[in-house]
UniProtKB/TrEMBL annotation:
SMART domains for the chain: DEXDc, HA2, HELICc
Signal peptide coordinates: none
Keyword Nucleus belongs to the record: no
Start and end residues of each Helicase ATP-binding domain: 20-167
Compositionally biased region (Basic residues): 822-832
SUPFAM superfamilies in the record: P-loop containing nucleoside triphosphate hydrolases (SSF52540)
Keywords for the protein's UniProt record, in alphabetical order: ATP-binding, Helicase, Hydrolase, Nucleotide-binding
A Pfam short name: CON_HrpB
GO molecular function, one term: RNA helicase activity
Organism: Deinococcus rufus
Enzyme class: hydrolase
Biased composition (Basic and acidic residues): 810-820
The protein, known as: ATP-dependent helicase HrpB
Amino acid sequence: MPRVTAPTDLPIAEVIPAVREALAAHQLVVVQAPPGAGKSTALPLALLDEPWLAGQGIVMLQPRRVAVRAVAARLAEGLGETVGGTVGSRVRFESRVSGRTRLEVVTEGILTRRLQRDPELRGVGLVILDEFHERSLNADLALALLREVQGALRDDLRVLVMSATLDAGLPGRLGAPLVASEGRAYPVEIRYAATDPTGRIEDAVARAVRRALEADTGDLLAFLPGVREIRAAAGQLADVDAAVLPLYGDLPLEAQQRALRPDPAGRRRVILATSIAETSLTIDGVRIVVDSGQSRTQAFDPATGLTSMVTTRVTRDAATQRAGRAGRTAPGTAYRLWSERTHALLPESRVPELLEADLAPLTLELAQWGSPDPAALEWLDAPPAPRIEAARTLLRGLDALDDTGRITPEGTRLLDFPTHPRLAHLLATGHATGRGALAADVAALLEERDPLPPGSGSDLTERVEALRNWRQRRGHRGDAAVLERVERLSRQWRQGLEVAPDNDLPGAWDVGELVALAYPERVALAREAQTGRPPGRFLLAGGQGAALPEGDALAGVPALAAAHVDARHAEARIYLAAPLDPAALRGHATWVDAVRWDTRTGTLIAQQEQRLGALVLDTRPLRDLPPAQRVTALADAIRAEGLHLLTFPADAAQLRARVGSLRFWHSDEAWPDLSDAALLDTLEEWLGPSLGRARTRDDLGRVDVRSGLTARLPWNLTRELDDRAPTHVTVPTGSRIRLEYRVGEAPILAVKLQELFGLADTPAVDHGRQPVLLHLLSPAGRPVQVTQDLRSFWNSSYFEVRKDLRGRYPKHPWPDDPWSHRPMKGVTRRGV
């Protein structure tokens, strides 16, 4: 085979020797090169004949299908070949390789599938992760799997991580050498808007495009957040003297190629693109960039398990990437539709997708890999544990994982479908139940954009009907271009399932039953029957409330399966769904014992419920309530509402205070913790035996808490408690006066002053170590003095108190010498 030669007129050529040397010595190498340097189109060719490859091939990952096709075509063109020769490409449903292929350009998910089938990657000597700065989930997963392969199976396998913008700490985190290319980008003049745009962003982009076409030369690339905005802007620019061309991932290959190639008629091009044009693609002739500053991505909420599309501002590194498109082949200009002040406030870089995305696909891949615990792999950023747990919950609902987190035969089957596990389950189960053609149509409609115009309602069944009418050239409504893409995808699914198309109109419940396979937690029951709410409000099986748009045709159905849901509101918004037969839900439901506390009525509810997630389809009384379930439910109720549900009589409250005081005074001793927090934590232990047959708030108020508290006290401490923290103190008159204990304070002894005549020392507890706090009372029982030093009181304060008391209580003795007077409980016939 002849030696492959790479272009030498690109900036990357200067560092190719350094890259060769680094790869010869290291398993893992990082290359940083700015846009246009040739790292994607020259470097891979330059490495094909390296001795360490030993005749093996190279696999290069790209984050998008558009980039795969464009990069593969550019590489093949550099060799004077077409794709499928030395250079091949693979994307979902499309493979252009041959026995001569030595360099494959693939999307990231393709590599994961190959690793699962062949962990040793036989025949591959180098894997290149291009555009790694985007930190896509699949790129992070591929890197983690490749590092394990290098450590366990293939110490000769090389990995090259390539990035246009680089996290300065990346080489160190990977333990890899860095080879950097300065590049040779042309200067790009950045022009900011005076203020941030208001109104629709597509309007602002269209105005900016018109101004730029008049002020500058060359082709123009405009970045918009999504297809809707691209179409709207294209409509406004229909009259400009240029070819207005869309560019986004779902375009047919021919339309993508038209946007990437010079116009056959020699006209200027206005390319309206999503963020797919940020990297990898060099579009010859582009001298102008108009950047809306917005990007549309999926946001996953692990609390609800729902994903929604959100439009966000670009990060500064993405804005740099976009502006760089204008300077790849000549000096250019970039118009940013935001102010320079706003630019300084943008986030510096993108958050790795791994930290924000739905991790169900990754979790299933890890289970198949044999590492259900992500911690077993080396990650740049570890997948968040709550998102992994949410993914496991979903996958268990799809029968893809067992209770231990290991993959099931169904999970292995789902990985054969190059799509999300939800849709894979829909396709696999739909086919197994004889509905393969409908499953293909439904899956394609869920993956593609909505073919019906806005305001068409949420019923997915109508989309299936529109597709099948369009396919048969019957009268239909809908966007023909979108329906064509849907049909192309459906055809690919049908070919994989080996089923013929079905153009009959589906039954009333058929589509909903398939949607329920993909989204079991979004099966929903109407709420108005129970709550009196207006039609269109539903409870999802996952527990969240959801609503249809006002006036939607599905508002009156008793049950539905929701597919597209916006979870950004307290009540989720349903945008795409299909009706379900409520009776059919019973086949998927299970009877469970439900024992719970109703806070509204203050009653323990004990019944059997036929449940599908949070949905209760039927109930029947639970006749034999197991004691353990009663105790657990009542304990949960007390924890939720507080200990005030229980009645603590005075002796019980003082028992807690006495024990708490000794615990406070002697932290090194084994006195039990009877604080509110400790009692709530241990309700089942100390209160469980006393709950008996309690069912209501009144029952809980009558529960004997003292016996439960006493049981918390070890037998050997019971007598010591009475000895060291007695309930009463005997005063000189012989009266036994109750002590009031408060944790952290001295016990209070409220006693009439006259009963202490002649007593010198303040009474004390805890073997005399803790003096009580005396509340000295008048004959009427009103406090006249508070002291812990009785001796000092008799010698000083008493005489001031005596003056007042003698005037108010003349029949009572108020001696000049309280030391010698006998203590008294009441009056005497002789005053003193």
